[in-house]
Each structure stands twice: as structure tokens, then as C-alpha cells.
């Protein structure tokens, strides 16, 4: 049992009907959310949807306009930031400019009265985590943006707060370093048993690190789930589109039995599996399917429940996979992705070829909004 599936599990962080207004503007609206101890939880959503505001309320830099916030069962109302067992790393990580990297990392530990030998050991461990052992004696202005971000990360992890709140912690790192640091953060979290709540724009990063993700839109959470749930069973076009690439095919609903419906669309009929609640006959609905779940071939696929004919419009070779955009008769472009398992593909599909796309009704999901 994962804690979020266990009705008896006690949440570590609990937002209960929290609203935050700035003047007449509502940044967070009647939001409820439980996060459990040792969870790696990510907030994902477009700029301005309220992610940072949510974190700031948890850290104590903002108070909710309405609603209650609890940490480990204790109400947080009126508790100042420094009295919360929370450490927040901001997007604009302010390092002390006159201090060395090592002193910046050691600062909080020193304040807490940690003895020097232990402090030095902790600093060394943190420097290793962020791969800055060689830079311990430098000042922040002698570092690159990515290196400064790693110092800030090391500083926020050093104190091993029970709850670590990170706002875009890896945003300034290049792709390779970012990927490495993601795995190291996960290892650290496991090892130390910390609870992480992080904000990111990067859906791949959220998928890689998180136990669960909440997708936000305009101050509300539109879906919460594990990375696989969010990817495989998005509950709306908005979520489907926010996480990864997706094809959305529209049509009018006719029932088909066995948990399936048929969508009558501009390019023919598509049969799709219904996950929660079938849309009514005659309604408009959408079938969402990921590019890698679509087969592409030169001949009409025999026995396929769903097949669409079209013309190859764009091809992008990405190394691990090739993306092929196919234009259907209605003008809709459908994206198919093939995994490049072998080094050379003989006679690969080319531009302007007539092709057939096929997919299983259960490989995608019918959406009502
Ligand atoms: P980003 O990814 O760009 O950081 P976000 O999802 O973290 O965005 P927030 O910083 O939480 O967004 O802001 C949510 C909304 O609240 C924005 O429209 C922002 O302009 C507004 N907002 C945030 N803080 C204040 C404030 N102190 N006064 C007025 N409006 C604010």
C-alpha cells in the first residue's frame, strides 16, 4: 500500500480548502492536498498557476486567505517561517556573496550550533553531492549560474530538514548535470528519509523524481497521481497535453459496449476505452493517445480496430526514436513515434509516403473535457 492509497495513513502535509488572494486576484482557490512522509511530491503547471504561492504558504512566507494548513498534524496558522521544520530553496537562491562555497553551506549548521568536526564532514558530503569539491574555497561571484544553484541546493539539504521545499532546484543546470543531480537527489531523499515538495516546469524531471505529481491550472489542482497514472490516464486534454506528447482526436459519441465507445470524427470512427464514466451518446469527446502507442506501416493493418490513412508530413530522427507526423484527410496531423531498436532501419518510411496508422482502443483514453 502506498500511503496515499491507505485511508488510515496520516498526512504529513495537509492543505485543507486553502485559498490565497492578492487583492482581488485569486492565486490559489479552495485547494486541498495531502502529502505523506518520505514522499517526493512535485507540483507541475504553467507559469503563474500558483505553484510558488503554495510553497510559500507552507514555508510560512504567506498566510492563506482562507482554509487551513497542517504539518505533521499541527496547524501552521501564525507559526513564523523559522519555527517550521521546513527548509525552502528559492528560485532566486540568495547566497552570501562574501562567504566561500563551504561557508555558505556551513552557515545554517553553524547557526544550529553543530560542532566543527561534524560540520566539516557534513559540508564535505554536500560538496560531493553537488560535485563541487574543487570549488569549496571560491566565492559565489567566481562560479557559474549552475554552480551557484548547486551551492544553494547543498545549503538547503545540509541541515537535513524533515521537509525540503525546492522551487525549480535544477533549472540553471545543463541537461546532463541535471539528469545526474535528479538521481542523486532521489538517492539522498531515500537515504535520509526526507519529504520533498518541489516545483518544476519540466515534466520529464517531475516524472523522473516524483512519487506523485499534482498538475495545476489557474490556482487549482486538476489531477494528482503517480507519474504513470498521469501519463497513461490523464483526466483531461489539459493534463494529457501538459505531460508529454499526445494526439487528441475528436468525435461524436456512440456507445460500443464492453467499456468502449466509438467516436465519429472527421477522419472516420475511432474506438476507445472509457476509464471513468462514459460520455453520453451524441456528446463530443476526445481520444487521447501517445505517439509511441501508434503503429505505422505502408499497408492497411489487418484486424486493427482503429486505423487511419494519411501522408507523411514531417520526420524527426531523435536517436532513440523517430517521430513521424502524418497528415490525415481532414488536415489533422497525428504523431507516431517508433523506437529505434536497431542501428539501421532498412527502407525507412519517407516524406510524402501514404501510410497507415493503427492503434488499440485500450492504448489511449477517452476524455470528456
Ligand atoms: P512560475 O512558474 O512562473 O514561478 P507559479 O505557478 O509559481 O509561476 P505563483 O508565483 O504562485 O505562480 O503566482 C501565482 C499568481 O499569483 C501569479 O499570477 C502571480 O502574478 C500572482 N502573485 C504572486 N505573488 C503575488 C503578490 N505578492 N501580489 C500579487 N500577486 C501575486
UniProtKB/TrEMBL annotation:
It comes from the Bacteria. Keywords: ATP-binding, Cell inner membrane, Cell membrane, Membrane, Nucleotide-binding, Translocase, Transport. It is an enzyme of class 7 (translocase). Its EC number is 7.6.2.11. Pfam families: ABC_tran, TOBE_2. GO terms for cellular component: ATP-binding cassette (ABC) transporter complex. Residues 13-243 form the ABC transporter domain. It catalyses: ATP + H2O + polyamine-[polyamine-binding protein]Side 1 = ADP + phosphate + polyamineSide 2 + [polyamine-binding protein]Side 1. Belongs to the ABC transporter superfamily. Spermidine/putrescine importer (TC 3.A.1.11.1) family. PANTHER family: PUTRESCINE TRANSPORT ATP-BINDING PROTEIN POTG (PTHR42781:SF5), SPERMIDINE/PUTRESCINE IMPORT ATP-BINDING PROTEIN POTA (PTHR42781). The complex is composed of two ATP-binding proteins (PotA), two transmembrane proteins (PotB and PotC) and a solute-binding protein (PotD). Part of the ABC transporter complex PotABCD involved in spermidine/putrescine import. Responsible for energy coupling to the transport system. This is Spermidine/putrescine import ATP-binding protein PotA.
Amino acid at each position: 500500500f502506498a500511503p496515499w492509497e491507505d485511508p488510515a495513513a496520516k498526512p504529513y502535509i495537509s492543505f485543507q480548502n486553502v485559498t490565497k488572494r492578492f487583492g482581488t486576484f485569486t492565486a490559489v482557490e479552495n485547494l486541498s492536498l495531502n502529502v505523506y512522509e518520505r514522499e517526493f511530491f512535485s507540483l507541475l503547471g504553467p507559469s503563474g498557476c500558483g505553484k510558488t504561492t503554495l510553497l510559500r504558504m507552507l514555508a510560512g512566507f504567506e498566510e492563506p486567505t482562507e482554509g487551513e494548513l497542517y504539518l505533521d498534524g499541527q496547524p501552521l496558522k501564525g507559526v513564523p517561517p523559522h519555527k517550521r521544520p521546513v527548509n525552502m530553496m528559492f528560485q532566486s537562491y540568495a547566497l552570501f556573496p562574501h562567504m566561500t562555497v563551504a561557508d555558505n553551506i556551513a552557515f545554517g549548521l553553524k547557526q544550529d550550533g553543530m560542532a566543527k568536526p561534524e560540520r566539516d564532514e557534513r559540508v564535505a558530503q554536500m560538496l560531493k553531492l553537488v560535485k563541487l569539491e574543487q570549488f569549496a574555497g571560491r566565492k559565489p561571484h567566481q562560479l557559474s549560474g549552475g554552480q551557484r544553484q548547486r551551492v544553494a541546493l547543498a545549503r538547503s539539504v545540509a541541515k537535513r530538514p524533515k521537509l525540503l521545499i525546492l522551487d525549480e532546484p535544477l533549472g540553471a543546470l545543463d541537461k546532463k548535470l541535471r539528469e545526474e543531480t535528479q538521481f542523486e537527489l532521489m538517492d539522498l531523499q531515500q537515504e535520509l528519509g526526507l519529504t520533498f515538495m518541489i516545483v518544476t516546469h519540466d515534466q520529464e524531471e517531475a516524472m523522473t523524481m516524483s512519487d506523485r505529481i499534482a498538475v495545476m491550472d489557474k490556482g487549482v489542482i486538476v489531477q494528482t497521481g503517480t507519474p504513470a497514472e498521469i501519463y497513461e490516464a490523464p483526466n483531461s486534454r489539459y493534463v494529457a497535453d501538459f505531460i508529454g506528447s499526445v494526439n487528441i482526436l475528436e468525435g461524436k459519441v456512440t456507445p460500443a459496449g464492453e467499456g468502449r465507445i466509438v467516436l465519429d470524427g472527421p477522419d472516420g470512427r475511432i474506438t476507445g476505452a472509457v476509464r471513468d464514466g462514459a460520455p453520453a451518446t451524441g456528446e463530443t469527446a476526445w481520444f487521447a493517445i501517445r505517439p509511441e502507442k501508434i503503429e505505422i506501416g505502408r499497408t492497411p493493418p489487418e484486424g486493427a480496430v482503429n486505423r487511419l490513412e494519411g501522408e507523411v508530413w514531417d520526420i524527426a530522427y531523435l536517436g532513440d526514436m523517430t517521430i513521424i507526423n502524418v497528415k490525415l484527410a481532414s488536415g489533422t496531423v497525428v504523431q507516431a513515434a517508433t523506437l529505434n531498436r536497431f542501428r539501421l532501419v532498412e527502407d525507412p518510411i519517407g516524406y510524402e509516403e501514404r501510410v497507415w496508422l493503427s492503434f488499440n482502443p485500450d492504448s489511449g483514453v477517452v476524455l470528456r473535457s
